Amino acid sequence: MKRLFYIVIVAMVTPLLGGCGLGTGSSAPPPPWAATVTSLPYSPDQGATAGDGRVKLEWTPTAGVDYWVFAATNPALTAFNWTGLANAQAVIAAPMPTYMCGLIDNLPYYFATNGRINGGPGGASSPTITATPYNASANWQLNGTNFSSDIYGLGYTGLTTCANNTALSAAGMFAAVGATGGIFTSLDGMNWTKQTTPAGFIANLNAITGYAINQNNATTPGLRWVAVGDGGKALYSTDGINWSVAASTATSENLRSIVQVGGSFFAVGDGGTIISSGDGNTWSLAAPVTSYRLNGIAHAGFYVAVGDHGTIVTNGGGGWGLPTSPTTSNLHQVTAIATIYGSIYVAVGDSGTIVTSDSYLHNGVWTALTLGTNPLVGVAVEPRGVETTTAYTTAPAIDLWLGFISSAQFVAIDSTGKTYTSVNGYDWTASATSTGISCTTGTTCMNPLVSSGFGYVTVGNSGVYATAF
Known about the structure:
mainly beta; Methylamine Dehydrogenase, Chain H; 34 strands; disordered N terminus
């Protein structure tokens, strides 16, 4: 039997981080905020895009003052006692606005701040204010038609991290692809721009992914987008705007899904096709291990591809293999997340089928369950905060299904637009709201759901799409 081990981390905090500066400069300024505090995500009609599990703090800054911000889930919080409180964190030399990240959904947080001048001592603590982050997937809004073609694939590339803590914190780019080479991009998931497809390119594009080599570098982010589609066709771009046709993909099979890991791209498709590339331009073909169509691929420690007839294909570094599948239903999409405790894999398919495994209790063993009878056409995952209960004295609860502490939030969507959420991939709850998207009977909404880390975007037929921020 596997045993569980806990690591308790005790923070040794200097008086500097306790809210009192050690400098010898000018006297401390007064508390900086008659502050406004906004829980993120905003609803779309407020004109902002942001994510769940975060809170944005704003105040009117004074020139020459260095602000520190403190947070915890205890209303007794001040700028001087935060280190002993539950779920505490701080931002030193905080910009305006400041984003507090990695927060626990639906749990009230409290915030205080103080300021210092020229490295001098910290001033008095501001009044404590509060806000409650929440799960974005409970806030769907149907946005009508914003595309000129059917959309089959969605992707997101983060340009900055939330920890970057600038006005562009957790900023990124969405990309959507579809019929006859249609390509669209968006900075907020709600307002889309059609990009020019290379001349003569008319193949349907079914999937897209990308990454930024230099996150938090607005000047040279080092973007690389790759889209794949019918007939083994592929396009690549270094900005999401200007696109080139790949020299060769080593296959003429239709490609259905793509993932990028550490600068390498893996795409899968019909006939069990698996190809890989380091730049999206030239590709290598792997020996197939199945003849069934592969519809989705993900990575969280090892690669997992899923497809028709319940096919599951995995690669942990020793080549592609076929673990035993618990279903014969066609599987459409797969997602995965690596947490500090272990990895979780979830795939969705026909007849409400979900298959799931993890890297701890169920390593290599897949379990099937069902959510209703409608086809599940998409699944995505975001990281979530974990409750530490009291001040580092009680360990978080172990998830009995996983065998470790979950820090994930999965969202699945069916062909009627109904969504479900789960923290472990096994226990699911129907969301209170629907996306409003319903796929026409007999068609497949391919790769309709993507997570940005601060919300979700999904597409349906005829370019209809919905967002949850």
